[in-house]
Design goal:
It is a single chain. The chain is of the alpha+beta class and about 240 residues long. The chain has one domain (about 50-230). The chain is built from four helices and eight strands; from the N terminus they run H-E-E-E-E-E-E-H-H-E-E-H. The protein has a six-stranded antiparallel beta sheet, with helices on both faces. Strands 7-8 form a two-stranded parallel sheet. It is extended. About 25% of the residues are buried.
Length: about 240
């Protein structure tokens, strides 16, 4: 038999079988069940991983506070309540709805500095930064990038370029002024930006300046004293 001799298979009656059409309802129902199961799986995974992620972020923040407030042995979290700093929140209040700052203390329980976490737009996305400052002199004590999606090899220099980062630990005066490398006049508030990552590095400066503008009036009002037993865990040496 040649290829041209092949004929379609027939049923017992000699008629070619008719293909059955798939029911639209059955198809939609199958997709709906699959979607529901996938959604349920995502929810279950999120419920399992979210506490782990939140705990990790909290630990990284705790470490960062001590980094930007060198010399601190403990710190307290203060919330902005009715335009004033408070260690406690109103009854039934959600912690996530309140802004906060971190007050660091030295071994003699004197205030070492204030740390603020703040995020603003960079070149690619939101840059989350924490920085510390002396509330009396208004000089910075440190800065650390907590989260950034800036361009690898360029924008990520805001935390990989040690020369840039170390400037914020050298006690610059606020408000900061960004200058091109080598173009500064030696002023106490100058920060050399990063060649090739000017927008990202200027974003860091803007975040700090805006944070100082927002929080200095609150800090100037006074920081309520806090009992030692309310402080966060001491820094690990």
């Amino acid at each position: 038999m040649t290829d041209t001799d092949q004929t379609p298979e027939t049923s017992v009656s000699g008629q070619t079988p008719v293909e059955k059409e798939v029911s639209t309802f059955r198809l939609v129902a199958t997709l709906a069940v699959a979607g529901t199961l996938a959604g349920l799986l995502i929810v279950l995974v999120n419920q399992h991983t979210k506490p782990i992620i939140d705990k990790y972020k909290a630990e990284q923040l705790r470490i960062a506070v001590y980094e930007v407030l060198p010399g601190s042995v403990r710190y307290n979290t203060y919330y902005l309540v009715n335009k004033s700093l408070s260690l406690t929140l109103p009854e039934d209040a959600k912690e996530s709805e309140y802004k906060r700052v971190y007050i660091g203390y030295n071994a003699e329980s004197g205030i070492r500095g204030v740390a603020i976490s703040r995020g603003e737009s960079g070149f690619q996305d939101i840059i989350q930064v924490i920085f510390g400052f002396d509330p009396t002199s208004r000089k910075l004590t440190g800065m650390k990038v907590l989260d950034s999606k800036e361009t690898p090899g360029l924008g990520d220099k805001i935390y990989k370029d040690l020369a840039f980062v170390e400037q914020f630990f050298a006690g610059p005066q606020t408000p900061l002024v960004g200058v091109k490398p080598g173009a500064g006049k030696g002023l106490a508030n100058e920060i050399d930006t990063i060649t090739g990552a000017t927008i990202s590095s200027k974003a860091i400066i803007d975040i700090i300046n805006h944070g100082m503008e927002e929080w200095m009036p609150v800090v100037v009002q006074g920081i309520p004293p806090a009992p030692a037993d309310t402080a966060d865990e001491e820094a690990q040496q």
